[in-house]
Write a structure and sequence with these properties.
Shape: globular
Radius of gyration: 19 Å
Number of helices: 11
Number of strands: 13
Oligomer: single chain
Strand order of the largest sheet: 3-2-1-4-5-6-10
Helix content: 40-55%
CATH topology of one domain: Rossmann fold
CATH class of one domain: Alpha Beta
CATH architecture of one domain: 3-Layer(aba) Sandwich
Largest sheet: 7 strands, parallel
Distance between the termini: 41 Å
Structural class: alpha/beta
CATH superfamily of one domain: NAD(P)-binding Rossmann-like Domain
Length: 327
């Protein structure tokens, strides 16, 4: 039997594919027509052209598979058409889960986000069980992922053997877009990061995040959530590590939050008129108001989640971005 992976051309999805292949698994990857498949180049993977909103097509694509990793998502801090993000993240999740249920799959792993979880924001780590609501979600990406996670939980109630994983902030190779965090690294390498906001993130090596998905499939409890994270760091600490790796100076100026928030609102207004991505995404600034710290102890304890030192993960990210012409 084969393992079906959505989002396989992306950052986390391509890393999941590589981990599955290392385990000797056969992989069928969902790819959109015309999508960039460079992350899968040279890999022994069956490419299945389809669309997350095509239930009939997905049902056909899952035939002969016993496991699904649903890692596909529209991950942007700004979009000209928010409805499209909900169609992919929410409606697409419903469609692929319906297809999985129809095909009687033995196991499904759904890639959510720590952004859907409760978080005090004051440096106290959030957890899988911390209370949270849609009103706590900042921006359309988090809102759409929160709603998609609720849909995934409904399928558990319908009998789908599904496990939810909530990655924190992965870093490493294959970040082709790049993600917002990858862009921070790229901007640092290109000396376009003169200052920073006082915020914090939980960082994990993307390879560990991918391995955590597989461990969730094999060891996770159906219906349970697992935070795939490693180390909580301030943005200043992240830049200090990058400075040590690269020899480049870390930004020393800490920006005040309120003027940056005002500038983000202005940028957002301009983008609504021009249709161009804002230089300062409002959702990103609003997220930075909280320290996005999380406690991954459940995944470490129950799944055996690996924890590569963050400095090594950042080193691999730097090397990959440099080797691939980003810096």
């Amino acid at each position: 039997m084969k393992t079906f992976v959505t989002g396989a051309t992306g950052f986390i999805g391509a890393s999941i594919v590589r981990e599955l292949l290392r385990d000797g698994r056969e992989v069928r990857a969902l790819v959109r027509k015309g999508s960039n498949t460079s992350n899968l180049a040279g890999l022994d993977v069956e490419l299945w052209e389809g669309d997350l909103r095509d239930h009939a097509g997905l049902k056909q694509g899952l035939k002969g598979c016993d496991t699904l990793y649903h890692a596909a998502a529209d991950y942007r801090l700004w979009t000209r058409d928010p409805a499209e993000m909900y169609r992919i993240n929410v409606d697409g999740t419903v469609a692929i889960m319906e297809a999985a249920l129809d095909n009687g799959l033995a196991r499904v792993v759904y890639t959510s986000s720590v952004g859907t979880l409760g978080n005090p924001g004051d440096g106290t780590p959030g957890s899988e069980e911390m209370p949270v609501s849609l009103a706590d979600m900042v921006g359309h990406y988090k809102k759409s992922k929160f709603l998609a996670e609720r849909e995934a939980e409904r399928f558990v109630a319908r009998g789908l053997p599904l496990v939810i994983v909530n990655p924190s902030t992965p870093v490493g190779p294959l970040d082709i877009r790049p993600t917002p965090t990858g862009k921070i690294i790229v901007d640092f390498l290109n000396r376009r990061m003169p200052a920073y906001l006082d915020t914090g993130l939980n960082i994990i090596a993307v390879e560990d995040c991918a391995r955590g998905h597989i461990q969730a499939e094999q060891k996770g409890q159906v219906g349970r959530k697992y935070i795939l994270g490693n180390t909580n760091l301030t943005l200043r600490e992240i830049f200090a590590i990058l400075a040590e790796i690269t020899g480049l100076p870390a930004p020393r100026v800490r920006l005040p939050y309120t003027p940056i928030l005002l500038a983000a609102y202005i940028n957002e207004g301009i983008s609504k008129i021009t249709g161009r991505e804002p230089l300062i995404p409002l959702a990103g600034v609003q997220m930075a108001a909280k320290f996005m710290y999380f406690d991954p102890s459940r995944a470490v304890r129950d799944l055996g989640l690996p924890r590569t030192p963050v400095a090594e993960a950042l080193q691999r990210a730097v090397e990959w971005f440099r080797q691939n012409g980003y810096a």
